[in-house]
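Lab notebook page, bench 4
Experiment: in silico fold of construct C2
Operator: M.H.
Input chain length: 161 residues
Purpose: comparison with the prior construct
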Amino acid sequence: MKVALLIILLFLTSYHSKAEERFLSHEEVPKSILSRIKEGSKHTVSQMHEQGISHFDYNEASVKFLSEVITDEHLHLSDNAKRILPEIWGAFLGEVIIEELGGKWVKFGDQYAVLVSDSHLCFPMNKVHEQIANGQIDSIYAFYLSTARIANEISSADDGA
């Protein structure tokens, strides 16, 4: 009985490790793509500054502001805007996450994500797309806050280990 239990435990541990490796297996983002992501983010900030929103920067308050803009405008965006803005605004959201919480851009499958705390992937471009499609129910601000909470919990767990 103990041997069977030990075999099951070893199998589950091995399966969990392999599943975690598969989930977190990612590639580095090519420099040309990383450059485009950073340019999209800078474009978002400069556009907000041109609109007279001088306090817009890489911080939580600006994510909240952008989330409110998306909520107010998502029903009025053209199809072209709905295609382009998730990349540009998602780049900004990802850069804020990296600036405030740490992390880096990675390629996961055919998508770009931010790897936070070496064990949490988040997909800011997808989240912007979801808020544009669905409104406030898919708020990028709530996404940012939940990502921050997860990053803090992972950091606290690492500090306690």
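Observations: Residues 105 and 114 are 4 Å apart (CA to CA). Residues 26-160 form a domain with the Four Helix Bundle (Hemerythrin (Met), subunit A) fold (CATH 1.20.120.1090).
Next step: discuss at group meeting.
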